[in-house]
């Protein structure tokens, strides 16, 4: 009976743990869906610092803001973190600020190590003199060296150097702890690390880790680091897989909320879920894809390479699972499709007649609408033809009047010629006939009458003609009833007189003048290639689009 109770209690605790882990995984899924919002908030804080930096003039204050920007970018974007570490170091050297020179040198080594440049990181730190460093700086210095060798040891796995680098990691870590103050926010975390890796007291280490977990926000970088350390503690010392997975998920949650792109918790979790089997492969594929996106965002080449080794395995397994599901779905779809076809055929028979009636009604409505549209267009066209006829009647009247005046003038010339010949005044007659004044008067009269007649016939010619030109090249009339030489030239072209010599004769100008006029105006045209054709189609009664619509 006692054995039964023990087994029941064990099963109850296991089920509770599994349920808790599943809830955490759902929370992780929701957090991944919101990661864009966390990134926007992070970038908002960074932009505020950049705005502050742009306005700051004090050198020390500028270095402090660059320090803040580095810490924002440290695990967010590799290239930006490197940029601010280099910039801060350059400014600190320029202004002789020893404190920030050392600090940004340490930062530079730290970011080089993250990028896999371990030898360069150690070379960067080598020139620093620890004798005149304050306690906090010494702590940073030794912890960064420890971190460099820790990365180097991981990178050198399965080689004789891994153990050498790990020993250096621990040596520098222990040196750094000597300068760790109790008021440091990371005090409990590093004490936990000390008891885990140097003193090998798992219980003591967990006490320190739990202290951090209780007091820190679950969206902080410290919380993420501690959760990851606590997960490894449970796995390495207690072999507690459930606790390991729980705290690994909590570490991944904190990484996402703190926008830590240089993180391994989600990557390791994806691998672990993948190893569980087919039931978790979809989630594993999603997590490893997010890890790859974060690694690319951060631009960590080593992490990208590391993820690339496992990503194809997870993706291939996920695709195989999807294919298997699709295979089962195909049979279901075929069966459902047969039912749907039967229903659709029955529905088709019922709706067929209704559809035909709707088509006929729609066609009739379209025909009526089209007829009404054509009637409206026909009415408008008739009205325009009436207006055109009226203008042409006016033009005929002007033409008859002009002919009558010239007939009368010709009669007067005939009488004058007879009188002068009878009076034997041929020389005087020759002078009168040769007089330019008479020709100018005739030309002016002709042009005035031409302007009036043309504008009567084509009242919109000037506006339509200017529409063919660029705004800067449009022609202004001296008066509403008078055309300029340029307008008269193209008015004659509109009437079909295209030959330059003919136009020059009608306008009493030289051929060169007309040629120059046509060239200048054509250069101002919006479309030079089709300009002459465009002029020929100005002021048409039936526009091309109307003609096309009638043909349709």
Protein model, in words:
The structure is a single chain. The chain contains 23 helices and no strands. With 552 residues, the chain is mainly alpha-helical. The chain is elongated, with a radius of gyration of 47 Å. The N and C termini lie far apart (95 Å). The relative contact order is 0.04.
Question: What does this entry show, briefly?
Answer:
The protein has 552 residues and is an all-alpha fold.
Keywords:
mainly alpha, 0% strand, Serine Threonine Protein Phosphatase 5, Tetratricopeptide repeat, 552 residues, elongated, single chain, disordered C terminus
- Give me the CATH superfamily of the domain at 56-176: Tetratricopeptide repeat domain
- End-to-end Cα distance: 95 Å
Structural class: mainly alpha
CATH uppermost class of the domain at 56-176:
Mainly Alpha
Largest beta-sheet characterization: none
Tell me what the CATH architecture of the domain at 56-176 is. Alpha Horseshoe
Number of strands: 0
Question: Mean of the pLDDT scores?
Answer: 83
**How would you sum up the global shape?**
elongated
> Rg from C-alpha positions?
47 Å
CATH topology of the domain at 56-176: Serine Threonine Protein Phosphatase 5, Tetratricopeptide repeat
Q: Any low-confidence stretches, pLDDT <50, length ≥5?
A: 1-17, 544-552
Order of helices and strands: HHHHHHHHHHHHHHHHHHHHHHH
Helical content (DSSP H or I, runs of 4+): over 70%
């Amino acid at each position: 009976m006692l054995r039964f109770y023990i087994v029941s209690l064990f099963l109850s605790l296991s089920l509770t743990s599994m349920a808790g882990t599943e809830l955490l995984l759902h929370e992780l899924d929701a957090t991944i869906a919101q990661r864009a919002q966390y990134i926007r908030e992070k970038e908002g804080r960074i932009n505020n610092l950049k705005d502050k930096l742009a306005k700051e003039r004090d050198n020390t204050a500028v270095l402090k803001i660059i320090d803040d920007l580095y810490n924002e970018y440290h695990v967010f974007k590799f290239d930006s973190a490197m940029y601010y570490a280099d910039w801060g170091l350059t400014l600190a050297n320029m202004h002789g600020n020893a404190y920030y020179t050392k600090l940004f040198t340490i930062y530079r080594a730290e970011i080089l190590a993250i990028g896999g440049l371990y030898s360069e990181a150690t070379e960067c730190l080598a020139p620093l003199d620890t004798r005149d460093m304050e306690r906090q700086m010494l702590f940073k210095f030794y912890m960064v060296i420890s971190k460099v060798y820790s990365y180097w040891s991981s990178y050198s796995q399965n080689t004789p150097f891994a153990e050498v680098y790990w020993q250096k990691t621990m040596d520098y870590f222990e040196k750094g702890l000597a300068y760790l103050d109790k008021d440091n926010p990371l005090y409990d975390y590093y004490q936990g690390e000390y008891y885990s890796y140097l003193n090998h007291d798992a219980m003591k280490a967990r006490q320190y880790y739990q202290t951090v977990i209780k007091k820190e926000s679950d969206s902080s970088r410290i919380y993420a680091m501690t959760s990851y350390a606590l997960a490894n503690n449970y796995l390495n010392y207690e072999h507690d897989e459930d606790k390991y997975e729980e705290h690994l998920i909590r570490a991944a949650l904190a990484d996402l909320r703190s926008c830590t792109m240089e993180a391994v918790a989600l990557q390791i979790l994806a691998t672990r879920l993948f190893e569980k089997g087919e039931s978790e492969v979809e989630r594993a594929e999603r997590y490893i894809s997010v890890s790859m996106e974060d690694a690319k965002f951060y631009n960590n080449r080593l992490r990208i390479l590391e993820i690339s080794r496992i990503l194809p395995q997870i993706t291939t397994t996920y695709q195989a699972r999807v294919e298997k599901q699709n295979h089962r779905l195909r049979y279901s779809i075929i069966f459902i499709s047969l039912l749907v076809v039967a229903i659709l055929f029955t529905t088709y028979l019922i709706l067929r007649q209704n559809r035909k009636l709707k088509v006929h009604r729609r066609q009739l409505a379209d025909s009526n609408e089209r007829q009404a549209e054509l009637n409206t267009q026909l009415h408008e066209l008739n009205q325009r033809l009436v207006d055109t006829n009226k203008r042409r009647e006016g033009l005929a009247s002007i033409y008859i009047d002009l002919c009558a005046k010239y007939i009368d003038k010709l009669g007067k010339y005939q009488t004058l010629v007879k009188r002068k010949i009878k009076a034997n005044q041929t020389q005087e007659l020759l002078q009168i006939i040769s007089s330019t004044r008479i020709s100018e008067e005739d030309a002016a009269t002709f042009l005035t009458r031409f302007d009036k007649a043309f504008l009567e016939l084509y009242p919109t010619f000037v506006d339509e003609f200017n529409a063919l030109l660029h705004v800067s090249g449009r022609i202004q009339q001296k008066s509403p009833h008078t055309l300029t030489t340029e307008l008269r030239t193209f008015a004659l072209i509109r009437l079909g007189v295209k030959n330059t010599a003919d136009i020059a004769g009608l306008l009493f100008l030289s051929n060169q003048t007309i040629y120059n006029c046509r060239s200048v105006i054509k250069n101002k045209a919006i479309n030079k290639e089709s300009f002459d054709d465009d002029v020929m189609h100005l002021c048409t009664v039936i526009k091309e689009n109307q003609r096309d619509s009638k043909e349709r």
